[in-house]
């Protein structure tokens, strides 16, 4: 009979048993290696003190910037408003005629400002070189139209003006509409208009014109409160402009 060691293992798989024993041995060795020794200690986490926050540079910059105007820069005084150009021009020129009126009072009223413009007379005005046209008012605006003895009565009446001593300067003249008593030619926004006299110094100055002879019975009509501007014709309209239109005094139609 053969010895017992030569008998085959149950199941006929001697290699599987050996593998299982080897795995158990490895697991035991790993467990022994991982066991802490008598003098070993587990690692512990030590909490670190909190780091103080670094101040943000932006607040300091804004604080310095905001404080600069109030602390180091003195407050600027308010800028004075610039006066309107119309006030600068109108105010002194409105006062000037009143002074001229005062100084002209002692002068005799019988002496006309210039020949052809006699206070109290009714005249017509024609542009020089255009005797068939007349200065007239139409829709309360000054203009120049073709008017002669055959024109309608209303057009001829609109071309008649009564010469008055200058409302702002007695050495000059004002022109009153014959068919609308109390209405005078005046300039407004440099345009010639017909308006009722309101008694104000501004209206008096705007309605006063000083004839300046150009020779040969031709006159330029200068504004008393805008001495560098004259009544000037542009097509059929009348304006104040630096270039004068010459006019001749004509008998009324």
UniProtKB/TrEMBL annotation:
<feature type="compositionally biased region" description="Low complexity">
    <location>
        <begin position="97"/>
        <end position="108"/>
    </location>
</feature>
<dbReference type="InterPro" id="IPR036195">
    <property type="entry name" value="AbfB_ABD_sf"/>
</dbReference>
<dbReference type="GO" id="GO:0046373">
    <property type="term" value="P:L-arabinose metabolic process"/>
</dbReference>
<feature type="region of interest" description="Disordered">
    <location>
        <begin position="48"/>
        <end position="113"/>
    </location>
</feature>
<dbReference type="Pfam" id="PF05270">
    <property type="entry name" value="AbfB"/>
</dbReference>
<dbReference type="InterPro" id="IPR007934">
    <property type="entry name" value="AbfB_ABD"/>
</dbReference>
<protein>
    <submittedName>
        <fullName>Alpha-L-arabinofuranosidase B-like protein</fullName>
    </submittedName>
</protein>
<feature type="domain" description="Alpha-L-arabinofuranosidase B arabinose-binding">
    <location>
        <begin position="131"/>
        <end position="244"/>
    </location>
</feature>
<feature type="compositionally biased region" description="Low complexity">
    <location>
        <begin position="57"/>
        <end position="74"/>
    </location>
</feature>
<dbReference type="GO" id="GO:0046556">
    <property type="term" value="F:alpha-L-arabinofuranosidase activity"/>
</dbReference>
């Amino acid at each position: 009979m053969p010895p017992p060691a030569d008998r085959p293992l149950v199941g006929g798989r001697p290699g599987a048993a050996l593998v299982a024993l080897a795995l158990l041995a490895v697991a035991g060795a790993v467990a022994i290696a991982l066991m802490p020794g008598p003098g070993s200690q587990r690692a512990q986490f030590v909490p670190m003190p909190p780091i103080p926050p670094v101040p943000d540079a932006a607040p300091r910059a804004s604080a310095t910037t905001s404080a600069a105007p109030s602390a180091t820069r003195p407050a600027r005084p308010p800028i004075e408003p610039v006066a309107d150009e119309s006030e600068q021009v109108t105010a002194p020129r409105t006062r000037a005629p009143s002074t001229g009126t005062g100084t002209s009072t002692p002068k005799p009223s019988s002496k006309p400002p210039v020949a052809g413009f006699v206070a109290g007379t009714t005249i017509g005005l024609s542009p020089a070189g255009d005797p068939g046209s007349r200065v007239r008012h139409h829709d309360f605006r000054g203009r120049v139209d073709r008017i002669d003895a055959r024109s309608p009565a209303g057009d001829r009446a609109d071309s008649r003006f009564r010469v008055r001593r200058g409302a702002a300067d007695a050495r000059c003249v004002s022109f009153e509409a014959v068919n609308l008593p109390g209405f005078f030619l005046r300039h407004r926004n440099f345009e010639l208009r017909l308006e009722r006299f309101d008694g104000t110094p501004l209206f008096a100055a705007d309605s006063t014109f000083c004839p300046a002879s150009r020779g040969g019975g031709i006159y330029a009509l200068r504004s008393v409160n805008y001495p560098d501007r004259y009544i000037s014709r542009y097509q059929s309209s009348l304006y104040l402009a630096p270039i004068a239109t010459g006019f001749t005094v004509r008998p009324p139609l």
